[in-house]
Design a protein that fits this description.
The complex is a heterodimer of chains A (325) and B (331).
Chain A: H1 3-35, H2 37-62, H3 70-83, H4 89-113, H5 118-136, E1 141-143, E2 157-158, E3 161-162, H6 163-181, H7 183-193, H8 195-200, H9 205-231, E4 233-235, H10 242-252, H11 264-286, H12 296-315
Antiparallel strand pairs in A: 1-4, 2-3
Chain B: H1 25-48, H2 55-81, H3 89-105, H4 110-134, H5 139-157, E1 163-164, H6 168-175, E2 177-178, E3 181-182, H7 183-201, H8 203-213, H9 215-220, H10 225-251, E4 253-254, H11 263-273, H12 285-304, H13 309-329
Antiparallel strand pairs in B: 1-4, 2-3
Helix pairs in contact in B: 1-12, 1-13, 2-7, 2-10, 2-11, 2-12, 3-4, 3-5, 3-10, 4-5, 4-10, 6-10, 7-8, 8-10, 11-12, 12-13
The chains are: A mainly alpha (325), B mainly alpha (331).
InterPro entries (chain A): ABC_transp_permease
Keywords (chain A): Cell membrane, Membrane, Transmembrane, Transmembrane helix
Transmembrane segments (chain A): 12-30, 50-76, 88-110, 116-137, 158-179, 210-229, 264-283
């Protein structure tokens, strides 16, 4: 295998290879404890909400945009879900979804219809959504009402895996299907690849952009509802910085920030990989011997991101001569 | 883009060689919108906030509170002028604060502590600049790496512990006064004046705008665009490091978990409301200063009028969207 094709394999499947390697490493080093159902369950349940946010972010980035508002939308969706949790699981989830989609629609209109810069538009809605979450929660945390079964959701299992994760896996499967086998997916990639050309070909560029921001907002809203159901209360400050970890997961998964190229599956792998680092640190510490501070977690995540980015640069040299975005 | 070559008109906020097609309301609003809003807020406070029009309230409260974000925003404006962005400023503040506090605890003098802390911040800027310039990584991603890893590095420096210290001459950066003016305000004025001078009167200022406006043309004209951009990132980080020292000087403790948290958003917002597009080629030193002070005064005014903080946040978001619309209409 030539070094070039090896590099390509690493860029496209690097995250998956690293993930498998880390899981094997964990299983060998920490033995049964690491591979227990309990550990797998808690990791997957925890990852489900991050994965939702990253899935939406992945589609936004593939159109060449960015959505900084998702962390605040997680808090807003979580607060709304917790406050409506007395009405039962489904109404609370739907309300969180609707609120998230509404914020996404505002982003979408401003970006697609008025062509405002996505970075700044979503920075503004980040502030607005966080303010709304604080306002609704009265600057405290919103506590879920356990009587209507809302908080049971976090404990639901199917074949030993949290239902939340099955749902997320199904959404990722749908996302991959939509990307590769529907007009919508083709429009997303065409818009991100070359917006002008996509417009000239008569593709619905504006509608596609609008749709990805609504999707991203809606998924972040549901992620907030998951958070509320799992932890029974949502701090109005929840979700802070999730937008940037989601971007990191998307990039680690092999999606280019320039748009036009992307992998839904890679994004899921990226989320699992970045979260697994934390899990491994916990295990290393419980094993005794060397104590690794949990502060290494963010340093290692940053290092992973750095490695992936440098790898991507090697493969897309053409970026060298063009102006930065 | 014709913005590159010609000389700059007198108003610093006006882009070079934009064809003047009369003053549309949007053009005026873009250039002076933040300033007009600042004046309106000022007038409102004079009328309705008790004791607003005193030196203590204006300098010690409003300006002093705005100063840290304003200094970071000035560095950010420099990076935005070369079509970049720096998300890592908050983490860099935390790193500089930790280095400074640890040096003090280790018995180094305040001057050495400040020097090493600012040096550490400059190295962070060098890392950002290297990724952006040498490896052509997009600025958002390049600085996201240090945003994520930097806070962890800062926490590791002290094992996550809060570092308290007591050193009056070091804390002068945060608490001192020169001619009765609080040190953060003095620093803000000095940094702004220096930057204004550099942008207006030095060769670097011209190559800066040329690099941001049209990098290809600038390169053909013999500008070393890589160095120009590198200098912008290093300056931005260095200023962030300085602000980190100011912040820990005020609290006399370095808290790696909280120093500089979210400052990148405030700084970018200050630049955005000053009417500067993120696409590069423009910088308005005074506009950025006005933007930072205005956003702070807006929040303080709302809070003083009894609005909860969350409403103040919502209003800030709305002001940013309005600023974007004004930019769009004035194109």
């Amino acid at each position: 295998m030539s070094t070039r094709s090896l590099a390509r394999l690493l860029q496209q499947q690097g995250a998956l290879i690293a993930l498998v390697a880390l899981v094997v490493f964990g299983a060998l080093r920490y033995g049964e404890n690491f591979a227990t159902g309990f550990n797998v369950q808690s990791v997957l349940a925890d990852d489900a909400k991050y994965a939702l946010v990253a899935l939406g972010m992945c589609f936004v980035i593939m159109t060449g945009g960015i959505d900084l508002s998702v962390g605040s939308v997680v808090a807003l969706g979580g607060v709304v879900a917790a406050q409506l949790s007395g009405a039962g699981l489904l109404p609370a989830m739907l309300a969180a979804l609707a609120v998230g989609a509404a914020v996404g629609a505002v982003n979408g209109v401003l970006v697609a219809r008025y062509r405002l810069a996505p970075f700044l538009v979503t920075l503004a809605t980040l502030l607005v959504a966080r303010g709304l979450a604080l306002y609704l929660a009265d600057a405290r945390s919103a506590v879920a009402d356990p009587s209507a079964g809302f908080t049971d959701f976090g404990a639901w299992r199917l074949f030993g895996v949290p239902v939340a994760f099955w749902l997320v896996a199904a959404l990722f499967a749908l996302g991959a299907l939509a990307l590769h086998s529907t007009d919508f997916g083709r429009n997303v990639l065409a818009t991100g690849g070359n917006e002008e050309a996509a417009r000239l070909m008569g593709l619905p560029v504006d509608r596609t952009k609008f749709a990805v921001y609504v999707l991203s907002g809606a998924l972040a809203g549901i992620a907030g509802a998951f958070l509320a159901a799992q932890s029974a209360s949502v701090d109005a400050a929840a979700g802070q910085g999730w937008e940037l970890t989601a971007i990191a997961a998307v990039v680690v998964g092999g999606t280019l920030l320039t748009g036009g190229v992307g992998s839904v599956f890679g994004t899921l792998v990226g989320v699992l990989l970045l979260q697994l680092i934390f899990n491994l640190i916990v295990f290393e510490n419980s094993r005794g011997g060397i104590q690794i501070s949990s502060y290494w977690e963010s340093v290692i995540r940053g290092a992973f991101l750095l490695a992936v980015v440098l790898l991507q640069v090697r493969l897309t040299r053409r970026g060298r001569t063009s102006a930065p975005a | 883009m014709a913005e590159v070559t010609t000389s700059r008109p007198p108003e610093p906020a006006v882009p070079p060689t934009r064809p003047s097609r009369g003053r549309s309301w949007a053009g005026v609003a873009r250039e002076y919108g933040a300033g007009i809003l600042l004046v309106l807020l000022f007038a409102f406070n004079v009328a309705f906030t008790p004791n607003f029009l005193t030196v203590q309230s204006l300098v010690d409260v409003q300006l002093r509170q705005a100063a840290p974000v304003a200094i970071v925003a000035l560095g950010m404006a420099l990076v935005i002028a070369v079509a970049g962005i720096d998300l890592s400023v908050g983490s860099v503040m935390a790193i500089a604060g930790q280095v400074g506090a640890l040096m003090l605890l280790a018995g180094a003098g305040p001057a050495v502590a400040v020097l090493l802390a600012v040096l550490a911040a400059a190295v962070c800027g060098l890392a950002n600049g290297t990724l952006v310039v040498r490896f052509a990584v997009q600025p958002i991603i390049a600085t996201l790496i240090l945003f994520i890893a930097g806070r962890g590095i800062a926490q590791l420096l002290s094992g996550g512990q809060l570092i308290g210290f007591r050193d009056p001459s070091f804390q002068f950066l945060g608490l001192g006064r020169i001619a009765g003016i609080p040190m953060p305000v003095v620093l803000m004025a000095v940094v702004a004046a220096a930057l204004w001078f550099v942008v207006r009167y030095t060769a670097y200022g011209r190559t800066l705008l040329a690099t941001g406006g049209n990098p290809a043309a600038a390169r053909l004209a013999g500008v070393r665009t890589g160095r120009v951009r590198m200098a912008a990132y290093v300056t931005c980080s260095t200023l962030a490091g300085l602000v980190g020292l100011v912040v820990i000087g005020i609290t006399s403790a370095s808290d790696a978990n909280n120093v500089g948290l979210g400052v990148e958003l405030d700084a970018i917002a200050a630049v955005a409301v000053s009417g500067t597009p993120l696409t590069g080629g423009r910088i308005s030193v005074i506009g950025t200063l006005v933007g930072a002070v205005m956003l702070r005064l807006l929040q303080n005014t709302l809070v003083a009028q009894g609005a909860p903080r969350e409403i103040a946040q919502i209003v800030t978001g709305v002001v940013i969207v309005i600023a974007l619309f004004v930019q769009l209409r004035s194109r």
